[in-house]
Amino acid sequence: MTNILTAAEAANVLRCLTTDALMLQLLPQVDDYIKTATGRDWTADTTIYPKAKAAAQMLLTMWYENPSMTGNAGALQGGLSACLTQLEAQALELESSGVPDAALTIVTSLPKDGNDDIAITANLVLIFSHAMDTTATSAVVLKDAAGNTVITVKSLDVTKKILTVNPTGSLTADAAYTLVITAAADSYGRTITDEIGFTTA
Predict the structure, then answer these.
(1) CA quadruple 53, 54, 56, 61: dihedral positive or negative?
(2) CA of 83: how far to CAs of 2, 79, 137, 163, 168, in Å?
(3) Domain check: are 111 and 194 in the same one?
């Protein structure tokens, strides 16, 4: 799970070990508080906003040093209050510009991971939750069991959410293949990396 602060960043701020139990317990609570306070899930971004990290550092330090305050910020410190106000304004700006709050995901695919009855002439389809950047077609590769790249023609539909991978020839029967998605970017700059393994009929 992604947090606004990585364990290494948090440990550096608190000057503790990356395995510190209290710190690890607080990280998701910090994220939830900032999400509630600003109206946006900052962990969904491919690159976390610096102001979100700054707010998380201040809140984490406050709660770590005074665990009885966990879950609230009492009378907000000046720096934290200002940071949360700026983040709230940034969230409204992003919302008005159409940048979705939710992370980029694969809604469904054909085949699904683990399918073992895919026709050797089938087109392979990925449906994403957001409109994809045109570079997404080059971020998806079909590989055979030996790791060799299978020649395909890839295209996005008019919504740019449906990516079709069409092998130029029939696949081998009863053979394993993997669709490898490497940092496929949506139109907002968010990326997704995944693998979908399947076997032909």
Answers:
(1) positive
(2) 21, 6, 38, 39, 53
(3) yes
pLDDT in tens, the chain (201 residues): 689 999 999 999 999 999 999 999 999 999 999 988 888 888 887 788 888 999 999 999 989 988 877 766 655 566 788 888 888 888 877 776 666 767 889 999 999 999 999 999 999 999 998 889 999 999 999 999 999 999 999 999 988 899 999 999 999 999 999 999 999 998 888 899 999 999 999
- The answer to the question of residue 1 being in a domain is no
- Same domain membership, residue 114 and residue 88: no
Q: Give, in degrees to the nearest 5, the angle at Cα 190 between 185 and 196.
A: 55
Crossing angle for the helix pair 21-38 and 78-96, to the nearest 10 degrees = 60
Instruction: Report the C-alpha gap between 188 and 44 in whole angstroms.
Output: 12
Between CA 122 and CA 126, with CA 123 as vertex, the angle to 5 degrees is: 130
Kindly state the tokens that stand for 27.
Answer: 């990280």
> What is the number of structural domains in the chain?
2
Residue 31 near residue 56, CB atoms below 8 Å = yes
